[in-house]
Amino acid sequence: MRLIPLLTALLVTVVLYLAVFQRDAMLAFALGEAGAQQPETETGGADGVATVPAATDAVRVVVLRSQARTVDSAVIVRGQTQAARQVEVRAETAATVMSEPLRKGAFVQKGALLCKLDPGTRDAALAETRARLAEAQSGMPAAQARLDEARARLSEAEINFRAAKKLIQGGYASETRLAATEAAVRSAEAAVATAETGLKSNEAGIEAATAAVAAAEREIERLDIVAPFPGLLESDAAELGTLMQPGSLCATVIQLDPVKLVGYVPETEVDQVKVGARAGALLVSGRRVMGEVTFLSRSADPTTRTFEVEVT
Fold first, then answer.
1. What is the band of 57 on the pLDDT scale with cuts at 50, 70, 90?
2. pTM exceeding 0.85
3. Quick one: average pLDDT of 212-221?
4. Which of 34, 45, 77, 238 minimizes the number of CB atoms within 10 Å of its CB?
């Protein structure tokens, strides 16, 4: 019966040994983690997150893989849309409108007729200037012929003068004859000068008549007031029967393609805006558009201290 006390003493000895020398193993066994081994590293999924437990009592950390990327430093301003071009087409001569007016909102192509003015007596004036030009041109052959005749007489007078000089040297002619031939030379020279002046006067008359014809033709061209570029009419064209004077408004034409964006950059951010830089805009309609900076004012508005910027 002494076997039971011996077994009890042996069991107590084992328990004391484990409690003193194998305490960590017993605690791990009691917590249900005994014998479980963790891998040294565990790599996360595609998001680049990794957990690294070095030991059972290590502190868990989270690691993110960093990647270099460009961070935009955009300058945000408020602005408005404007027409790319706008021009007030005005009359250059005085006349009465003889064409039906185009209504505002109508689209016109480049060169389209906006206002047709009454020619009046301009056609007759053009015909008169052309007749004067023809008359001046017809006088050219006669003027040239007179010059040629005067030069021929001068040549003849010079020959006679040289012959008289030789004769007088030989004693075969008198001083009177020599003086007469010399006077004939002077008279021929004057006739040549007169003929040259007449020819130049005729050439000047041709140039004046040509200029008059060009002016008359230009005056007739001014009767047709046309659109300088394709666009929309911002206002009605001049009404039929309206008396136009130089500078009178015929119509206003605007070009909306492309649209120009105009904004105002604060003085503190103007250094971040450069001509040629890409720019975007969100319109009130919700549409997003892209363009580039085409103009940046060099001087600030004296009231708001902002700089005008244009994007097209």
1. low
2. no
3. 95
4. 45
CA angle 237, 258, 284 (to 5 degrees): 95
| Residue-wise burial string across 141-160, b where 16 or more C-beta atoms lie within 10 A, e elsewhere | eebeebbeebbebbeebbeb
Between vectors from CA 84 to CA 83 and to CA 86, what angle results, nearest 5°?
A: 65
Helix, coil or strand: residue 29: helix
Residue with more model confidence, 136 or 5: 136
Tell me, what amino acid is at 119? P
Q: Which residue has the higher pLDDT, 242 or 34?
A: 242
Least confident of 57-66, 146-155, 217-226, 264-273: 57-66
Rounded Cα–Cα distance for residues 280 and 266 (Å): 17
Calpha distance 166→160 (Å, rounded) = 10
Question: Which residues lie across from 229 on neighbouring strands?
Answer: none
Q: On the CB side of 84, how many CA atoms lie within 13 Å of its CA? A: 12
Q: How far apart are CA 276 and CA 186, in angstroms?
A: 76
Q: How large is the average pLDDT for residues 144-153?
A: 92
Q: pLDDT tens digits for 89-120? A: 999 999 999 999 999 999 999 999 999 999 99
Picking from 236, 227, 225, 239, the residue whose alpha carbon sits closest to that of residue 97 is 239
DSSP state of 214: H
At residue 71, the pLDDT reads 59
75 burial (CB, 10 Å; 0-12 / 13-18 / 19+) is middle
Fold of 79-118+224-311: OB fold (Dihydrolipoamide Acetyltransferase, E2P) (2.40.50)
Domain ranges of the chain: 3-64, 79-118+224-311, 122-221
Exposed / middle / buried, residue 299 (Cβ in 10 Å: 0-12, 13-18, 19+) = exposed
How many Å apart are CA 68 and CA 195, to the nearest integer? 91
CATH superfamily of domain region 122-221: Helix Hairpins (1.10.287.620)
